[in-house]
Amino acid sequence: MQKPILIGGLGLSLGLALLGRWQASVFDLGEYIFWGAIAVGGLMLWRQNQPQLALDDPTSPLQKKDVNQAIANAQQWIEALQTESPEQNFSTFTNTLTALNDQFSRTALTAVVTGGRGTGKTTVLKQLAALNLRCEFTETDPLFTDLASYDQAAQNQVFAADLVIFLVNGDLMASQWDTLKHWLQARQKLIIVFNKQDQYQSEQRELILEQLRKHVYPAIIATDVMAIAAAPQATKVKQIQTDGTTTEYFEQPIPQLTGLQTHLQTLFGSEATKQQLVWSTIWRTATLIQHNAKQQLNTLRRQRAMPILEKYQWLAAGATFANPVAALDLLATAAVTGQMIMDVGSIYQQKISLSQAQAIATAIGKQMIQLGLVELSTQAVGGILKTNAITYVAGGAVQGVSAAYLTHIAGLSLMQYFQEQDPHTQGENLNFDQLGRILKGVFENNRRSQFLQTFTTGTLKRLSPQTIR
Ligand SMILES: Nc1nc2c(ncn2[C@@H]2O[C@H](COP(=O)(O)OP(=O)(O)OP(=O)(O)O)[C@@H](O)[C@H]2O)c(=O)[nH]1
Ligand SMILES: [Mg+2]
Prior knowledge:
Elements: H1 15-22, H2 36-39, H3 43-48, H4 50-53, H5 64-84, H6 91-102, E1 109-115, H7 121-129, E2 135-139, H8 148-160, E3 163-168, H9 174-185, E4 189-194, H10 202-216, E5 225-227, E6 235-240, E7 246-251, H11 258-269, H12 271-322, H13 328-335, H14 338-347, H15 354-370, H16 373-387, H17 396-419, H18 432-445, H19 449-463
Parallel strand pairs: 1-2, 1-3, 3-4, 4-5
Antiparallel strand pairs: 6-7
Helix pairs in contact: 1-8, 5-6, 5-12, 6-12, 12-14, 12-17, 13-15, 13-17, 14-15, 14-17, 15-18, 16-17, 16-19, 17-18, 17-19
């Protein structure tokens, strides 16, 4: 199964394990979809929003100001959420953030031992726990199982930990590496441990280790990849006695963990490293809270924006149906009005004047023409109308439905564009490149014939309820 573990994984991450440990009251994630978008392929979101969330280079050391900034950003989103949804109580968010400030002075570290099923997690954990390394070690459930809930719980633990010891028994699979890359992006310190090296001949071991190191370089440096044998298998030894008889016995080799032990001791012995580990966890938590707040706010705004969008869809459809326009650029003009942009913008706290909104509308119309969306829409709508034997509604129908459809696309794109802005930026200076990319994406996503089909019939019903049955 190549199922990316983070689908539904990062989702409910962190909260329970991490915040539960830090606070008496467990963060009630049940009612939120923590990193909800991540649950639905939201890794995309993590990636898309990365410039705002992650630092440019996750391997560069974290500065305290970056961590504070992450907390402040989260705070900002929570405030926006509270303002727009005053009836709801978001104190759990705020409390968690406040508690994060106390984490800066934390000296106790936590580490998780994780990896696929049967890779030796429990064995390694026992060995490490006995070493008195001044770190609290826990084991996760096996990753990469088909049970999403297991993956999710494991993911929670991983994100809560300052350090991750990731076990493999050979080279990494591509899907596993994908997961690790996301962890790195979340500023998770990773140590890759090739366990059960006793199962290979020594040349093979070297080869596997080398391969592993190559695979993860430069994201993970060579010293953070090592081979161990936490519980090497007993080997049968035959001994020929002086009288010619042979006796057999099993020899239990001693565990080979010194490399890992020394490495951990070095890491934990450095105050600077410990600080980075703790800061990263604070940063990660703040970022997750920010995501959660943002997600909730976006859901709320979307719910408010959709009826507005629909209103303008029908307005555009009605106007164009009654007065069919010949030229495609006129169709684009009819579809996107300044008033709609203002109304949708205001839901997203974008204060745009009518004249600015009109300029934006014109620009969006132009972009839709340039991208060929107007032509593609009219063709697609025309095709659907033909095959549905409802052509007799004739002339204005193609234009009416197309105008509504383009309004729909433009509106959804604006919503997405506004979503990607910082909570307090204003919309006067739109980034048209970004908007153009979004328009294209939204158009592609809504192009599925089934959607357009339903949309077309729905619009037609509205346009002339008596002619369509
Ligand atoms: N040959 C060999 N076997 C090992 C080594 N480490 C662990 N094992 C064996 O691998 C098996 C699984 O080890 P566990 O420690 O239970 O692995 P786990 O990852 O905790 O397993 P799950 O929690 O079920 O995913 C056991 O039989 C261990 O004795 C090793 O270094 N060499
Ligand atoms: Mg186990």
